[in-house]
């Protein structure tokens, strides 16, 4: 199995799928990547080239230091989780990761009925509100929720025109959460970047940890 090392891209890391790796380098100035036969070689390439590119470890790993990409967008990772999904006692939480030990990292329980999609949407909302409060006007939201990205980039405009009805006439699920997320984008330039979950991407992994902590505080009637 090949391993694709992305040392400089939207989300540096090691990928096992070329489309996933390609998504991290498309549109990224001075991207640095390479294919390897072993994971160890790929990880070493990422480590060495990240150091060569900046003269220090990647910024996302620097304590309290927010990362900004080549286009001036604040890099943030958001994740929503639903523990014990479909079972009694399921709990949802939201996590937002800016950087290690960053004062603006978010770990909160979901408000409303527990579900993955609702948690993903609320996590992104927290990310944008927090970024805006910090004075940023360009934000790159890295998420493993393709559903949410589709909502915001492909479906939302028509849903709003049709009074939040889908093409089959059914009401849009997660309407309230999406209204809040749409509101949070006002005044911001937002890039939605899909990352693969649980694939060794530091920001995604850390946001997931924060979301799980938030889920522990979840109450069904929140």
TrEMBL record:
<dbReference type="InterPro" id="IPR037056">
    <property type="entry name" value="RNase_H1_N_sf"/>
</dbReference>
<keyword id="KW-0540">Nuclease</keyword>
<keyword id="KW-0255">Endonuclease</keyword>
<dbReference type="InterPro" id="IPR002156">
    <property type="entry name" value="RNaseH_domain"/>
</dbReference>
<feature type="domain" description="RNase H type-1">
    <location>
        <begin position="70"/>
        <end position="216"/>
    </location>
</feature>
<dbReference type="InterPro" id="IPR036397">
    <property type="entry name" value="RNaseH_sf"/>
</dbReference>
<protein>
    <recommendedName>
        <fullName>ribonuclease H</fullName>
        <ecNumber>3.1.26.4</ecNumber>
    </recommendedName>
</protein>
<dbReference type="GO" id="GO:0043137">
    <property type="term" value="P:DNA replication, removal of RNA primer"/>
</dbReference>
<dbReference type="Pfam" id="PF01693">
    <property type="entry name" value="Cauli_VI"/>
</dbReference>
<dbReference type="InterPro" id="IPR050092">
    <property type="entry name" value="RNase_H"/>
</dbReference>
<feature type="region of interest" description="Disordered">
    <location>
        <begin position="48"/>
        <end position="67"/>
    </location>
</feature>
<dbReference type="GO" id="GO:0000287">
    <property type="term" value="F:magnesium ion binding"/>
</dbReference>
<dbReference type="GO" id="GO:0004523">
    <property type="term" value="F:RNA-DNA hybrid ribonuclease activity"/>
</dbReference>
<dbReference type="GO" id="GO:0003676">
    <property type="term" value="F:nucleic acid binding"/>
</dbReference>
<dbReference type="InterPro" id="IPR011320">
    <property type="entry name" value="RNase_H1_N"/>
</dbReference>
<dbReference type="InterPro" id="IPR017067">
    <property type="entry name" value="RNase_H1_euk"/>
</dbReference>
<dbReference type="InterPro" id="IPR012337">
    <property type="entry name" value="RNaseH-like_sf"/>
</dbReference>
<dbReference type="InterPro" id="IPR009027">
    <property type="entry name" value="Ribosomal_bL9/RNase_H1_N"/>
</dbReference>
<dbReference type="Pfam" id="PF00075">
    <property type="entry name" value="RNase_H"/>
</dbReference>
<comment type="similarity">
    <text>Belongs to the RNase H family.</text>
</comment>
<keyword id="KW-0378">Hydrolase</keyword>
<keyword id="KW-0460">Magnesium</keyword>
<keyword id="KW-0479">Metal-binding</keyword>
